[in-house]
Amino acid sequence: MLERQHEAIISVVSVAGHVALNPLYSGTKFGLRGFSFSLRRDLIRRGMCVSLVSPGYTKTDMNKVSRKPIPEPVARTIVYLAVKPRREVIVPGYYSPLVDMANAFPWPWLVDLTISRR
Questions:
Q1: Long-range contacts, 70-74 (Cβ 8 Å, 24+)
Q2: What are 28-47's pLDDT values in tens digits?
Q3: Scanning 11, 22, 32, 114, which has the fewest C-beta atoms within 10 Å of its C-beta?
């Protein structure tokens, strides 16, 4: 990949890598985000792109009993990032305000309150 340059590495993480929900699951997603961001900074000078897809709930066996609306899988976003790389895309977009709030406010209790009301 380094020889060809202009390649893309795309990691599928989770919104749970922004907003901690489950200790083990969120912990691994936070770790993968950190790894991917540092890899991005390391490879960008070599002409390579590293992008992240952070989906909310998606249709899987793990959450098939969920009452929340669950969007289709994120394959279309992955293809989009292969063509037009970006740092990170959150899908579906309606999760973005929650992620923005979690990242912008230094008061974790506000995010806790928002999550507990869902």
A1: 74/12
A2: 999 999 999 999 998 888 88
A3: 22
